[in-house]
């Protein structure tokens, strides 16, 4: 009899196909009433698969009395209650990998897309407007200043890419990086005032929640652009909507949102906003690597073999 698994959220389709072959998979997001669904299947579920953004709470652990392992399709476990896992004796695994490069690729692509108005121009052509008129110009990327919020792995990779576009680079963070040669700001409002494009790459913490607020957006100014590839809650979303609607910001490119997958209707109606469904690490190469690691650990667990990517509790 195949082990029963609860899949908390849809993941890479080929991974789900392999899971369906080897396990009995219960897909939580397809249930009209998730709580009732869990009560229906809870007695047989021995494993759960979650994601970096979905996580696994104490109440999730409590709802599954036979749970033995939680596997995260992604490299981070911040939203998994590891204390609850330890208390219950549930193993936790993840799929460690380097996300900096693909996220930095996307960030640079979004800088170009929003400043050169690529998505707007695509819609202009598809709507058949080209024969009747000239598309309004975008902004140069080269020669502009890119202010990077957070200068960790992703911020450093973005700096390399921005330098390739002849952008001037500066960064903001809690501390100056001794090995970084770029201009450092300890005040985000001051950096925003000096930047043409502000790119958010820092982690979400209590200190960075709503870090990019109305004050920072005003400093970025009517000719400035905001790009967020970090976490939605780092930007005050209502302040961003107000700034865009009031012409106080030239445009924004967003891969993350405060209440994913729900995107504010105001943002979806704005032409000068580039929207993506949290695809920072969504490449075939990353997904296939995570798939191999996740499946290998699940198969090893149910075969009684050691886990390769077990998280220390």
**Overall radius of gyration:** 22 Å
Could you tell me the CATH topology label of the largest domain.
Answer: Rossmann fold
> Helical segment tally?
12
Please state the average pLDDT score: 97
Distance between the termini: 30 Å
Order of helices and strands: EHEHEHEHEHHEHEEHEHEHEHEH
The CATH architecture name of the largest domain reads: 3-Layer(aba) Sandwich
Instruction: Detail the poorly predicted runs.
Output: none
- Classify the secondary structure makeup into a structural class: alpha/beta
Instruction: Report the strand count.
Output: 12
Tell me the number of structural domains.
2
In CATH, what is the homologous superfamily of the largest domain?
A: NAD(P)-binding Rossmann-like Domain
Largest sheet composition: 7 strands, parallel
Q: β content, as a range?
A: 15-25%
Structural features, described:
By secondary structure, the protein is an alpha/beta fold. It folds into two domains: 4-98 and 284-303, NAD(P)-binding Rossmann-like Domain (Rossmann fold); 100-275, NAD(P)-binding Rossmann-like Domain (Rossmann fold). It has twelve helices and twelve strands. The protein has a seven-stranded parallel beta sheet. It has a five-stranded parallel beta sheet with strand order 2-1-3-4-5, with helices on both faces. Strand 10, helix 10 and strand 11 (251-254) form a beta-alpha-beta unit. The radius of gyration is 22 Å and the shape is globular.
């Amino acid at each position: 009899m195949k082990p029963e698994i609860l899949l908390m959220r849809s993941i890479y389709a080929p991974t789900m196909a392999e899971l369906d072959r080897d396990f009995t998979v219960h897909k939580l997001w397809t249930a009209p009433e998730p709580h009732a669904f869990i009560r229906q299947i809870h007695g047989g579920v021995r494993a759960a698969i979650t994601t970096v953004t979905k996580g696994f709470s104490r109440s999730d652990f409590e709802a599954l009395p036979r749970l033995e392992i939680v596997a995260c399709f992604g490299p981070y476990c911040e939203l998994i209650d590891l204390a609850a896992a330890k208390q219950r004796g549930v193993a936790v695994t993840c799929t460690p990998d380097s996300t900096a490069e693909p996220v930095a690729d996307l960030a640079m692509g979004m800088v170009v897309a929003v400043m050169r108005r690529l998505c707007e121009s695509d819609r202009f052509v598809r709507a058949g407007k080209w024969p009747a008129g000239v598309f309004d110009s975008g902004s140069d990327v080269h020669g502009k200043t890119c202010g990077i919020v957070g200068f960790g792995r992703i911020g450093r990779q973005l700096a390399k890419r921005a330098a390739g576009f002849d952008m001037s680079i500066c960064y903001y963070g809690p501390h100056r990086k001794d090995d970084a040669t770029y201009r450092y700001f300890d005040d985000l409002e001051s950096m925003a005032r000096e930047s043409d494009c502000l790119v958010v790459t820092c982690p979400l913490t209590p200190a960075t929640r709503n870090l990019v607020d109305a004050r920072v957006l005003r400093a970025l100014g009517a000719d400035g652009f905001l790009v967020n590839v970090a976490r939605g809650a780092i930007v005050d979303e209502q302040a961003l909507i107000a700034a865009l609607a009031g012409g106080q910001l030239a445009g924004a490119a967003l891969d993350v949102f405060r209440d994913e997958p729900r995107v504010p209707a105001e943002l979806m109606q704005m032409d000068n906003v580039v929207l993506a469904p949290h695809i920072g690490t969504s490449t075939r190469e990353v997904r296939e690597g995570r798939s191999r690691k996740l499946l290998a650990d699940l198969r090893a667990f149910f075969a009684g073999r050691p886990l390769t990517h077990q998280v220390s509790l």
